[in-house]
Amino acid sequence: MLGKGMKASDAARPAVDPGIAMVIGRIFHSPYIWVGIACLLGFFIVHMLLLTWADYSYVQPATSLSYATVAVLSYLLLGEAISPLRAVGIAVICLGVFIVGRTAPSTTGIL
């Protein structure tokens, strides 16, 4: 969403130099930018909550599923192309997450 918002705002037009204030104004008037910011905030809140529940060595690989989620949503919602090499990379990440997910978390108690 952030990428779509930046492309829609024409923030990097080399022919016209409207000044930094105008560029920032155009960027923050894009609803795509605000949706992207909300998604990032939601991710960070969920990530912090997960870290209170499980060890970092368990949570961090699980968050790698965001690569697959972003690729699928960008294909479905934004019409972006996913190359075969990228699809293979996403499959390898998902396989790794599956392998790590099958191990038992060793969460320690609060001191």
Q: What does this entry look like structurally?
A:
With 111 residues, this protein is an all-alpha fold. It is 70% helix and 0% strand. It has two domains: 1-53, no CATH class; 55-111, no CATH class. The protein has helices at residues 2-8, 20-28, 31-53, 56-62, 65-78, 84-101.
What count of domains describes the coordinates? 2
Largest sheet: none
Radius of gyration: 19 Å
Distance between the termini: 41 Å
Beta strand count: 0
Helix content: over 70%
Strand content: under 5%
Name the assembly state: single chain
- The stretches of 5 or more residues where confidence is low (pLDDT under 50) are none
Mean pLDDT: 79
Name the features.
6 helices; 2 domains; 111 residues; mainly alpha
